[in-house]
Amino acid sequence: MAAKKKIIKKVAKKAIKKVVKKTAKKPVKKVVKVIRKEKKVGKITHYFDKIKVVVVKLSDDLSVGETIRIIGGENTDFKQKIVSMEFNGEKIKKAKKGKQVGIRVKDRAREGYKVFKV
């Protein structure tokens, strides 16, 4: 976990240096806010491998059409657009904080992986 944070800090520093060189008048704090657009939306509680569906416990609102990023383990880090979402077997377009929803994913995911809104 600490290694990921170090890598993220290095990447952020390089990106900030590039942007500061291009626009030296902008304050660095504003540049950092632009880079960190992702917001944690929830955590995966279950994965159904045959149908490639994850159950996500939401910590923020989420709706169909938004792009999410799933991060976890050593090799799992992918982005995708939400095409369909279900709650208690019924398709929904929006889900509020605290619900557990099913989302079809394009790649493998496991319990405990984090879900971010891009």
Protein described:
By secondary structure, the protein is α+β, with helices and mostly antiparallel strands. The protein has 2 domains: 1-36, no CATH class; 38-118, Beta Barrel (Elongation Factor Tu (Ef-tu), domain 3), CATH 2.40.30. 25% of the residues lie in helices and 39% in strands. It has helices at 2-22, 28-35, and strands at 39-48, 53-58, 62-63, 67-72, 76-81, 85-87, 90-91, 94-95, 100-104, 114-117. The protein is globular and about 50 Å long. The two termini are 21 Å apart.
Q: Kindly identify the CATH topology of the largest domain.
A: Elongation Factor Tu (Ef-tu), domain 3
Biggest beta-sheet profile = 8 strands, antiparallel
CATH class of the largest domain: Mainly Beta
Domains, number: 2
Question: Summarize this, please?
Answer:
By secondary structure, this protein is α+β, with helices and mostly antiparallel strands.
